[in-house]
Write a structure and sequence with these properties.
This is ABC transporter substrate-binding protein. The chain is of the alpha/beta class and 262 residues long. The protein is 41% helix and 22% strand. It is elongated.
Length: 262
């Protein structure tokens, strides 16, 4: 009887732990670089609170590189959650690759300009000042994601300099633009502020003027066929929660999650 009671006490301690271990999930995430700084700050807290493990990789929201989110899904990579540019996520929802009811806006980020650390900071305070800066620059870099597509297809045209900068401006695939600027391979570089901030070796000149600024919304979604849908949805809720807002702001973005105050 004494042995039975002792065994019962041991099982009473061990079984809840085993149940917790059984409910812990491995959630596979692919995130755009635009949300990376906030995600890196928030991921450990989510793991601590839930016991789930996050397995994370990075890739652009669009484009033709193997790392791009659409390419990964096309290959059938086992992914539970994607964090990416909102309108690119909408395309995946239309294709049935992401669950429509899971689409959750997380944050928005504006485009900034950076130069190599120690280089003079050009004037970009107005449209005219930005135009003069780009005409004078020897080389211009921009990303292969949402901000770069906008710069190449729209902003240069709005400024009336598309022909003048065509031969010295280039899109950077699958690498942060800030790294190219830090190496001295481009005199100026454009990307979302949240993607520029974490990279050493550069100085952020400032945000684009209001008339030519573009704010990109980053959203999260549950991949169709996710192996861990409950844990994946819990992660999405956490990233959009008021508790995540401070980390989102610190990364250079404005939180958009439901119930998040500004």
């Amino acid at each position: 009887m004494i042995r039975f009671r002792a065994l019962s006490r041991v099982l009473g301690l061990v079984l809840p732990l085993l149940a917790g271990a059984a409910s812990a999930a491995e959630v596979r995430v692919v995130s755009s670089g635009g949300f990376a700084a906030a995600y890196r700050a928030l991921a450990p807290e989510f793991e601590r609170r839930t016991g789930h493990t996050l397995v994370t990789e990075w890739g652009p929201s669009m484009g033709h590189t193997p790392q791009a989110v659409p390419a990964r899904l096309e290959r059938g990579e086992p992914i539970d959650v994607v964090v990416m540019v909102g309108y690119a996520l909408d395309d995946l929802i239309k294709q049935g690759k992401v669950q429509a009811d899971s689409r959750t806006p997380l944050a928005q980020s504006g485009i900034a300009l950076a130069v190599r650390a120690g280089a003079p900071k050009p004037d970009i305070a107005t449209d005219d000042a930005l135009r003069r800066t780009l005409l004078a620059a020897k080389s211009i870099a921009y990303s292969d994601s949402a901000s770069g597509v906008y710069i190449e297809k729209e902003m240069f045209k709005r400024l009336g300099i598309a022909a003048e900068v065509k031969d010295k401006a280039r899109m950077i695939p699958a690498e942060p633009v800030a790294k190219v600027v830090a190496r001295g391979e481009a005199e100026v570089g454009f990307q979302q502020l949240s993607e520029l901030k974490p990279v050493p070796g550069i100085e952020i000149v400032g945000m684009l003027p209001k008339d030519v600024q573009l704010y990109t919304v980053f959203s999260a979604g549950l991949v169709t066929g996710s192996r861990e849908p409950e844990a994946a949805r819990a992660l999405i809720r956490f990233l959009a929660s008021p508790e995540a807002a401070a980390a989102v702001r610190e990364s250079g973005m404005e939180p958009l999650g439901a119930g998040v105050g500004k």
